[in-house]
Amino acid sequence: MKIETLANLVKGELLNTPFISEVTSFTMDVDEVIRGSCFFVTNKEDIKYAIKNGAYAIISKNYEKIIDNEIAWIKVDSIKDAVLEIFKYESLKE
Fold first, then answer.
1. Residue 49 and residue 45: Cα distance in Å, rounded?
2. Mean pLDDT, rounded, for 8-27
3. Among 16, 18, 38, 61, which is most exposed with the fewest C-beta within 10 angstroms?
4. How far apart are CA 69 and CA 66, in angstroms?
5. What is the pLDDT at residue 25?
6. Neighbours of 61 (CB within 10 A)
7. Which pTM does this prediction carry?
8. How far is CA 72 from each of CA 42, 91, 92, 93, 94, rounded to the nearest angstrom?
């Protein structure tokens, strides 16, 4: 999914201009992050690990310090709502 589409779908604010242009998977579990993943932050301590494992996008409810400008940083009002929007979109796609 293109980053612009992702940000619009989750009603988020794109906090930077990332180098990457799209993500290939979605997860809330830091142990499931692979290269190309969009990671939904539930514990800010997991952000560095997610990036190390290949996350291409970080979606958080809070403004997080941008520690890698090459990936997308998106702020949302609700992680739960953002996940639901992605789930609905992916379900309708199939």
1. 8
2. 97
3. 16
4. 7
5. 96
6. 18
7. 0.94
8. 17, 23, 24, 23, 26
Nearest to 41 by CA among 52, 32, 50: 50
CA-to-CA distance for 92 and 12, rounded, in angstroms?
Answer: 20
Reduce the DSSP state of residue 79 to 3 states and report it. helix
pLDDT at 91 over 80: yes
Dist. CA 76–CA 57, nearest whole Å? 13
Q: Tokens for 82? A: 């953002």
| Contact (Cβ atoms closer than 8 angstroms) between residue 69 and residue 89 | no
Q: Are 38 and 23 in contact (CB under 8 A)?
A: yes
CA distance 70 to 67: 9
